Amino acid sequence: MAELQSKIQGTILTPESGDAYIAALRRNSDLSILPAKLIVQPATYEDIPSVIAYATGQTPPLEIAVKGGGAHSSTWASSDGGLVIDLSKLNKVTLAEDKQSVSVQGGALWGDVYEVTKEAQVDVVGSPLWFVGVGGFTLGGGYGPLSGEHGLAIDNLLSATVVLADGRIVKASKDEEPDLFWAIRGGGGQFGIVVEFIFKVHPYAGPFGSGIIAYPGTEIANVLEIIKEWKTKQTPAERLTLNFSRPPPLFKPSIALLPTVLHDTDGTRAQTVLAPFTEGSVKPVFAKVATAPDFLALSHAADASLAHAPRRLAIRGTFISDLYPELLLAAWEKWVAFTETSEEVRGSGMLWDLTSPAKLVEVGVADTALKLRTPHYWMAVQGRSTTDASVDAARAFTEQIVQFVREKNAELSGQDLGWFVNMSQGTEKPEDVFGEHLPRLRKIKAKYDPKNVWNKGFVIEPLLE
User: Fold this and answer.
1) In whole angstroms, what is the distance from residue 438 CA to residue 431 CA?
2) More confident residue, 326 or 3
3) pLDDT tens for residues 64-107?
4) Among 14, 165, 246, 421, which has the highest number of CB atoms less than 10 A from its own CB?
5) Inter-residue contact 126 to 147 (CB < 8 Å)
6) How far apart are CA 172 and CA 179, in angstroms?
7) Residue 43 confidence (pLDDT) above 90
8) 105: how many CB neighbours lie within 10 A of its CB?
9) Which residues contact 270 (CB under 8 A, 6 or more apart)?
10) What is the DSSP string of 128-166?
11) Are 264 and 297 in contact (CB under 8 A)?
């Protein structure tokens, strides 16, 4: 280890490092934590090749995991007895002088990006939550509040800097390493460590109307009918997240709509757009919508509720062709039944994203590694547990629900949309995650990582010829 430290400028942590090691192990979900033998926090891009060489040169080689934001609920960014490359010190964000692009290092969180865009009064396509890492979010596609107007994060990626398994540091764009650039836009983190992203920057989209509109669970069927009608008039500047939860103190099944309305200069736009939910035939039990000045503020909106959420968290999700009332009602009933089984799992919830797909379908299915370019939405199941004993039940529930949603959506739409890589756990079939792109991804994997050094995450086996 001393030899490795002599070759890098970054920090090496071991279990003997005390609180610093414990802090570096922390993830968004306690279920994602594994005891690494070494945690290396590179200070420069050039540190990383030496770290890779050290890990692969051991007998046997050390498993390598890469941690960006650590928000995924799997153990993909952790290693039991292996080496974690923790990118947290590589979190610099630099806006170009012409404000047309922004450079974001691979360890940055979206909150780091929004600090910069806030000051410059510009926006980028990013996560609705500040603590999500830029890297994992982007490599899986990047569905965000601005996707209705500007597409996915990968559709706004201009270029990237990638550290490869053999230690080379390369630029990837449509003109340089085009196969690699294609693969990292939707293929996940299987091709190298992306240490820098260059994103397209857009004009300021705020102020943003946001808040919560809540109904008792008894109104679920009526609320879904209102959503169905509202969707016929939805524009790319409006987004809804539909949430199933049991809020305290009564913990009764409840429906919450979390809106994001762009260009809400004085609040009247949100008031008009959301009128069917606040002033229609179904009256909410609680409604509070206000304007947020920027994405930084918007990305912190859920902080208070998340602070009290159980930290044993398992997430799975999938795609849906539409918000079919029949599908959502059946999922609602399953969720209500499960969360009634025990207080230990009643913090489990579901969310359904309703962002206009108008822009994402403008990109051809062959243009990036993302397999889906037909109109679609995504949903997620959050299995939360307050005790170790209830973890297995919560995990099983998330798996059962997403399987049901996938099958029911296929029945209703005639399309099997498969799985969403950023909401997978790694046990799914790769052909169901990457679809028709899997053969090409396997060939690119063989080109850039033939020895499968990157064997954490949703693993793509190299197709060696």
Assistant:
1) 6
2) 326
3) 999 999 999 999 999 999 999 999 999 999 999 999 999 999 99
4) 421
5) no
6) 8
7) yes
8) 22
9) 209, 210, 259, 261, 264, 289, 291
10) SSTTSBHHHHHHT----TTHHHH--GGGGEEEEEEE-TT
11) no
